[in-house]
Amino acid sequence: MDFFATTALGLIAAIPVTLLLFVASAIGSSLIAGGLVAAQQSRITRPIAQAWIFVFRGTPLLLQIFMVYYGLAALGPIRHGWLWPAFREPLFCAWLAMTCCCSAYIAEVLRGALTAIPKGQIEAALACGMGRWTRLRRVIMPQMLRLALPSYGNELVMMIKSTSLASSITVLDVTGVASQVIAHSYRTLEVFCLAAAVYLCMTAALTALLRRIERSLAPAGSRRA
Amino acid sequence: MIDTDLSLAALIGFGPDGWGWALMSGAVLTLAVALAAMAIGSVLGGVLAAMQASRRPWLVWIAATYGLVLRGVPELLVVLLLYFGTPELMAAVASLFGLPAPGSPPAFLTGSIAIGLVSAAYQAEVFRGGMLAVPHGQIEAAMAAGMGPATRLRRVILPQVLHHVLPPLGNIWQFNLKDSALVSITGLAELMRVSLVAAGSTRRPFVFFAAAMVLYLIMTSASSALFRLLERRGARWSKR
Amino acid sequence: MIRVLAIAAVLALAGCHASEPVEDRELIIGTEGLYPPWNFTRADGQLAGYEPDYLRVLCGRIHRRCRMVAMDWDGMVGALQTGKIDLIADAVQVTAERANVLWFTRPYAVTTGVIATPRDGPMAHMSDTGALMDFDHKGPALDAALARLRAGLAGKVIGVQMSGTFDNFLNQSIGATGPSGVSIRYYRTMGERDLDLLNGRIDATIEDESYLRPLVQTRDGAALVLTGPRMVGGSMGRGEALAFRPGDRALHDAFDGAIATTLADGTTRRLGLKWFRMDPTPQKSTAQSR
After folding, report:
1. What is the CATH number of domain C24-110+238-276?
2. Which of B24, B52, C176, C181 is geometrically suited to a Cys-Cys bond with B63, CB 3.0 to 4.6 A?
3. CA of C108, closest CA in chain A: separation in Å?
């Protein structure tokens, strides 16, 4: 029982690390995803955005994390550059890798939502004489965000689970603490069940929150089956 | 302890000191793990989908809980649990029978089963959607037209289900391919592990992780091309 | 009469078969192939290092054919117990804990744990550098040395291999608690730890000198220096030995005898200089009667 309690406390104490990484990655990747979608609208910048999405969706996140943490640190400009104090920290490297990776997936989600907006509405906006920015602000963005919400929520849930990969570069998040306790006590089953329970609580809470937001954003009077 | 003065080409090449063959066989193992996980996930996913469509509430509950848990827990934890926990479990079971601890099962097995278990949770959702894809009226019409169950399956059910199910399955395959990198934790010499060992022992991480990224990109883009081809062929009958 | 002769002939042949070379059976040696320079896997998949060389010598001396296979450490003890392998040669350090499960030969090498740190770092000039620190010789001298060691490590970031010998040592003997404690970073493989040592993310590492001495002599490792005491005994064990199944007397004694000859005739020293740049022959000063 004592072991159980100590381990549980240790895991709970690591939750802030997981949440910090999650929130920071969510913000960073969403911003970059917005930029990627914008870049896809112009013929010049589209190849760059496509290349970014291709690379970050086509390779495993674990490999990207190792590349950022070990690979970049082997390059002179990084190791001896002014950004080294940041790259020196495992948490920063995990955040950077996750931000780049998830931005590619979110960009695809946003692009899908963009193409799902009924064309008629955009034509009507044009017919009304709305300028580009007004069209964006009044017609496109609200619908895009609403249509994207279910898939975006899925990406957020995947993101919370992906934070566990940070443990592979010495970050002491929930998985990191769990691995460490197991390595020293050999009581695998109990520790991992505790860690799994912690993640389940987090994903369940996130899913519940997202559902509430979805419901409140549904257009008035419409009922989803 | 290798003093690596070798050029880039020699390091990843196929010479005596080059890691080219090791990287290639790592890629093959990656494909093998992904395939095994896909197979396990398909079979288990089909069973779970069937359970959720059954009329016995406890079966539905088990399948639903399985899906919830396996989709709410990080894949890395599942891999770690199976890798570290299976020997413990086997030792406990063996001691019940008075046998000595049997050691750990092969890493390939625990790794692909772990990824397969997670994949099954997602594939079950895909199959559930697929089962709803065929309007019941069509099945009734087929029966009225005198088609036997095999013909019904081949002519009416399967084409529509596959068309519905192929795109998301392609997605799941891509995830299996990338999740196979997590199996590197077990020490299995798949691509991620080989590049990590090479990076550590030659102290040239950038080279080897870049090489691994290229190999993964080849595998994922070939896979998406293959699935696009399959989807196009499968869509020939539909007027979309 | 003929029947009796026939039966006698059959029995004689059967008897021959029974005493047929069990000695001809190939011995399977378990190792990891991931612990240079003791054993490592070359890019072409072949096992190389001190132990492949050394075991070749030993097997020659007892006139048996041997084959080395690579497997992960966690499965090795089980494989030995179930007979999949006949012995373990993986730089296994002799500790009291392990002696419960494994039957060790005499040590074929004794190496110490040392600290490696960047040459221009804050830990480059620790006290007691080069001095032997024996954790089995308890007393006021050891306590004083331990206090100096703790002071030297206080507040530093030390990287070790997860659940390895020195991970246990750091946690048990030095302690990671409190603000003046040691900050420990855990790595799954030695290679990852080496990378972070070289790029300065960790201040130092504690590892076996057989691994660190060749490392500091490579071009990348020239930026590192070995510092602090040479530690042996206690949770770090005392020397590396071959491990057999408890009760496997014939094999155990055969190899034990062969090891004695290599210690006496300088084979150990020769191979040690080749792979470790040092002589790992157990000296009287680090030896202790079992």
Report:
1. 3.40.190.10
2. B52
3. 28
The upper half-sphere exposure of residue C22, i.e. CA atoms within 13 Å in the direction of its Cβ, equals 4
Q: Which residue intervals of chain C are DSSP H helices?
A: 2-18, 50-61, 73-81, 96-99, 140-153, 165-169, 190-198, 209-216, 249-264, 267-276
Ordered domains of chain B (ranges, CATH): 19-234 (1.10.3720.10)
Which of B1, B99, B188 should one mutate to test binding to chain C, selecting the residue with the greatest count of C CBs within 10 A? B1
* Tens place of pLDDT per residue across chain C (290 aa): 777 776 766 666 555 444 445 567 899 999 988 788 899 888 777 899 999 999 999 999 999 999 998 877 767 887 888 788 899 999 888 888 788 889 999 999 998 999 999 999 889 998 889 889 988 888 999 999 988 998 899 889 999 988 778 888 888 888 766 666 888 999 988 889 999 999 999 999 999 998 899 899 888 899 999 999 999 988 888 889 999 999 889 999 999 999 999 999 999 999 999 998 888 888 743 543 32
Question: Where are the domains positioned within chain A?
Answer: 2-217
Nearest CA of chain C to the CA of A16: how many Å?
Answer: 19
On the 0-12 / 13-18 / 19+ scale of CB atoms within 10 A, A162 is buried
Query: Which pair of tokens denotes residue B135?
Result: 């309007």
Rounded to 5 degrees, what angle do the CA atoms B33, B36, B38 make? Answer: 105
Compute how many other C-beta atoms are within 10 angstroms of the C-beta atom of residue C259.
23
CATH architecture of C113-236: 3-Layer(aba) Sandwich (3.40)
Burial of A173: CB neighbours in 10 Å, binned 0-12, 13-18, 19+:
buried
The verdict on a CB contact (< 8 Å) between C81 and B107 is no
Taking the Cβ of residue C50 and every Cβ of chain A, the question of whether any pair is shorter than 8 Å is answered with no
| CATH number listed for the domain at residues A2-217 | 1.10.3720.10
Cα B58–chain centre separation: 28
What is the identity of the amino acid at C133? M
pTM (predicted TM-score): 0.87
Which residues from A are below 8 Å from C200, CB to CB?
A: 88
User: Which residues make Cβ contacts (< 8 Å) with residue B219, sequence separation at least 6?
Assistant: B27, B30, B31, B177
Rounded to whole angstroms, the Cα distance separating B162 from C107 reads 64
